[in-house]
């Protein structure tokens, strides 16, 4: 949802006059669409049908890539915001897009952390993994 806000806020400005916002648009659209695709895959449990694909590793790589590229998008969007913009509305929308890009960056960073822990199995308890059912 936050990536969609970045996309909508930038798209509502005169972003075509500033090439830096093209990169922000690409990152926000690409990762919003791929996140929706991953959501549908997990919602429909298609990841269980394609058991050959190491889904935990795929999620770590996806989230890490999204984090790094959203860092660049956030820095680009923040650096391109100018208080003396063409119109006050563009300034407000670009500043809000920078804020939401920062939130998306933090969210993908947290997702990277949790997907890495799930991939490595760091959240499991050794005692519960040794218990067998003797009933």
From TrEMBL:
Keyword Transmembrane helix: yes
Domain of life the protein comes from: Eukaryota
Membrane topology reported for the UniProt record: Multi-pass membrane protein
PROSITE patterns documented for this protein: MARVEL
InterPro entries: MAL, Marvel, MARVEL-CKLF_proteins
Subcellular localization, as worded in the UniProt entry: Apical cell membrane; Myelin membrane
Gene Ontology biological process terms, A to Z: myelination
Keywords per UniProt: Cell membrane, Membrane, Transmembrane, Transmembrane helix
An MF annotation (GO) of this entry: structural constituent of myelin sheath
Domain MARVEL: 1-120
A cellular component annotation (GO) from this entry: myelin sheath
Transmembrane segments: 20-44, 51-75, 95-116
Assembly and oligomerization: Forms oligomers.
Protein family according to the UniProt entry: Belongs to the MAL family.
Protein name according to UniProt: Plasmolipin
């Amino acid at each position: 949802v936050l990536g969609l806000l970045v996309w909508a806020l930038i798209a509502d400005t005169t972003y075509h006059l500033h090439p830096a916002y093209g990169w922000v648009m690409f990152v926000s659209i690409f990762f919003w669409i791929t996140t929706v695709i991953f959501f549908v895959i997990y919602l429909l449990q298609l990841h269980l049908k394609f058991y050959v694909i190491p889904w935990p590793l795929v999620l770590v790589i996806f989230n890490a890539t999204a984090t790094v590229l959203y860092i660049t998008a956030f820095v680009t969007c923040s650096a391109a915001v100018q208080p003396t913009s063409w119109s006050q509305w563009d300034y407000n929308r670009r500043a809000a897009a920078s804020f939401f890009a920062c939130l998306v960056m933090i969210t993908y960073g947290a997702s990277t952390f949790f997907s890495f822990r799930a991939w490595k199995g760091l959240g499991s308890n050794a005692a519960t993994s040794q218990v067998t059912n003797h009933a």
